[in-house]
Amino acid sequence: MKKYKLTYKPFGESAILIEWPSEIDIAIMEDIVSFEKLIAKEQKVLDTIIAYNSLTIVYKKWDNYSRYYKYKNLYDRTVEKLKELYLKEREVKSNNSHKIWEIPVCYDLCFGLDLEELAIQKKLSVEEIIQLHSEATYSIYFIGFQPGFLYLGGLHEKLHTPRRSTPRLRVEKGTLGIGGVQTGVYPQNSAGGWNLIGKSPVQFFEVSKSNPCFAKAGDQIRFVPIDLESYNKIDEEVKKGNYKPKFSKS
Amino acid sequence: MIKVLNAGIYCSVQDLGRLGMAKIGVPRAGAMDQFSAKMGNILLKNGQKDAVIEITFGQGRFEFTSDTFICITGGDFSPKVNTFPVKLNKVYPVKKDDFLSFGRRKYGARSYLCVQGGIQSEVILKSRSFYGGITKQRLLKGDELSIPKAKLYPEGFSKVKVFYEHYENNQLDCYPGAEYNLLTNKQKQGFQKLFTISGDNNRMGYRLEEAVQNDLPSILTSSVLPGTIQLTPSGKLIVLMRDAQVTGGYPRVLQLTDYAISRLSQKLTGEQIRFVLH
């Protein structure tokens, strides 16, 4: 696995921000995901936050108020340990196998409120848009913005579309949209400015489960077109708690 | 049990928040003024992580349906048990059928109702802290919260003096944020002035009125924490608070200390603050 030149910065009193080169790149994401796993295994951490080119490690508070020098010393020591770990990881054989989730999506116009407008804008047919969107495999870079909101990479260039100038006040949970170079599913009802193209019955965040979000950074996603009838069927299964998202291994 | 008779402007149950799930986008949440919430728990000889009721801008009214000991900390909104005024930072026994109410504001923005053993609302994803989408958003009139059976309170009733500096001092200690060093010296000097808290302030963040000169591009979406101060394209600052999302795309110029978040959470719209960089 390629090694990157990382920068380490203190992030407040008890966290460290580790940064990779500032670009959206699958190899960087994989490096971040495997480094995060290793740190969580080797060190006592309270929380970790993964993003496109950064990893934040939250530790137990080092210092109460601003006894800065003591804090500085602990920070330096922790960074040294992280640097050692990053090198150590080089020897660990990276485990590249990850899940490819198959997410059923109904691209019916009753959900894809912006499909027709998008087709006119792109000089494509609605069917072509659906095909371009559903034939790609998307990588999950990280989860942020809302619980269970996946940042996906891999949207076909032809589908890149700026956000709507006026956001909708309410977008229903499960709705699939396109915003800029990104595509994704709204995990909860919320306001939203993306162009809506379909809806999935799958729940991306379920508080009742010990693992509330089935997907994780490093996994992949495929959107599988389904008709309205199958949508309703799966939706019922989801509501009964009988539905488990399907996946294959890469 | 504690019955909510009037949920005032905004009341929620909070502990020290949800940790370990930022990777799947779960915000930390937790009491805004953790300094005060912890103090109440310490005085009651509770665990520091026990849940308390956060009462924003007073007005709440509660009924106790069983005996317990309480301690009110944080902002002073003239709390009374029945008709009897109670002091802040002091443990009192309350009996079944007693009422607790809040009145005129003396100082601060958020009060904490701490009870012996902590509020026993449902633990969801390892925390009792309310956060819309994970738990209910806020307490509503008619809600009932269980509390543990009262235990004998060990020897005498503890109290501590109110730390007025927490409310009156407008200096907020902070460290440089991840993008601070991209600023020019002139831009950095812009952070030395007084900033005014805008009306747009809540558990997620406080927007500030004054702008600083900004020509930084936005960043690739990266992590943010409670206390992260973001510089928006207009030059205005947003101080992220306890309910902040886990990621954001604005440059992170400063990072408040945990104590400074608590201090800021007791300030109101129109109050002025100053950042003290370490």
Outline the structure in words:
The complex is a heterodimer of chains A (250) and B (278). Chain A has helices at 26-42, 68-91, 115-122, 126-134, 228-240, and strands at 7-10, 15-19, 47-51, 54-58, 99-106, 138-143, 150-153, 168-171, 175-179, 182-185, 190-192, 195-199, 220-226, 246-249. Chain A is of the alpha+beta class. Chain A starts with 6 loop residues before the first strand and ends with a strand. The mean pLDDT of chain A is 90. Chain A is built from 5 helices and 14 strands. In chain A, the strands form 4 sheets. A 5-stranded mixed beta sheet of chain A has the order 7-6-13-5-14. In chain A, strands 1-2-4-3 form a 4-stranded antiparallel beta sheet, covered by helices on one side. A 3-stranded antiparallel beta sheet of chain A has the order 10-9-12, with no helix packed on it. In chain A, helix 1 crosses helix 2. Chain B is mainly beta and 278 residues long. Chain B folds into 2 domains: 2-163, no CATH class; 169-277, Cyclophilin (Beta Barrel), CATH 2.40.100.10. Helix content of chain B is 9%, strand content 34%. Chain B has a 7-stranded mixed beta barrel. In chain B, strands 7-6-9-4-1-11 form a 6-stranded antiparallel beta sheet, with no helix packed on it. In chain B, strands 2-3-10-5-8 form a 5-stranded antiparallel beta sheet, covered by helices on one side. The chains are: A alpha+beta (250), B mainly beta (278). The interface between A and B is large, with 46 and 35 residues.
